[in-house]
TrEMBL record:
Molecular function (Gene Ontology), one example: DNA binding
Coiled coil regions in record: none
Alphabetical list of Pfam families matching this protein: TetR_C_29, TetR_N
Record has NADP as a keyword: no
Protein name per the record: TetR/AcrR family transcriptional regulator
Gene3D superfamilies named in the record: Tetracycline Repressor, domain 2 (1.10.357.10)
HTH tetR-type domain residues: 5-65
Keyword Oxidoreductase: no
Source organism (scientific name): Lampropedia aestuarii
Keyword line: DNA-binding
Residue spans binding DNA: 28-47
């Protein structure tokens, strides 16, 4: 059982690298087998085809970020501090895990069909949404947050502001004639996002 789990994990790591570099359409099982240093038939043993493997990689990517979010202990913080911490975490996670954005890009090119069958990602997201509801409710009770703040819209805003900036960094840098990938630019962007989110939430 340990060998089986180790092999499966090795395949997922190799597949994540391949899918993030080549996208779903460009990825090849042969190259994944080479990266994993495993027989191609073993990949088909654990995952019936490339579709199933990509779905597993996508679900694993979501599981990783959700697990990392849980370690933030947002419930123990004051509401404004918790929201700022979530913005900072999301930004830094995307910076440190560019393959996550690449895999999401590929999934969106295929209209999210790889997330429709299982529902595992929806289950993974539920605790985060519940936590955000609690943080917002606490802030509302304290009179700090607006009463109509929606946790889903809030998270999409936080994720979207980070995602768009990083996914389009090269074109944005060219259009505006400035390097938006410097440490100074990153720090300015993070501060701006915190100001935007907390400014929206303010009662």
């Amino acid at each position: 059982m340990r060998d089986a789990e180790r092999s499966r994990k090795t395949i997922l790591v190799a597949a994540k690298q391949e899918f993030s570099e080549a996208g779903f359409d460009g990825a090849r099982i042969d190259r994944i087998a080479e990266r994993a240093e495993l027989n191609k038939r073993l990949i088909y043993y654990y995952f019936t085809d490339k579709e199933a493997l990509f779905q597993a990689v996508l679900e694993e990517a979501y599981a990783d970020i959700r697990q990392a979010e849980q370690s933030l202990a947002l419930a123990s913080m004051q509401p404004a501090q918790a929201i700022a911490k979530l913005v900072e975490f999301t930004w830094n996670y995307y910076l440190q895990n560019p393959e996550f954005l690449s895999i999401l890009n590929s999934a969106n090119l295929h209209k999210g069909r790889h997330l429709e069958e299982e529902g595992r990602v929806q289950r993974l997201n539920s605790p985060l949404m519940q936590l955000l509801r609690e943080v917002l409710h606490k802030g509302q009770q304290q009179g700090d947050f607006r009463a109509d703040a929606d946790p889903v819209q809030l998270y999409i805003t936080i994720a979207g502001m980070s995602y768009f900036y990083l996914s389009n960094n090269y074109t944005l840098s060219a259009v505006f004639g400035t390097d938006l990938a410097t440490q100074t630019a990153y720090a300015e962007r993070l501060a701006h996002m915190c100001d935007v989110v907390l400014g929206y939430l303010k009662a």
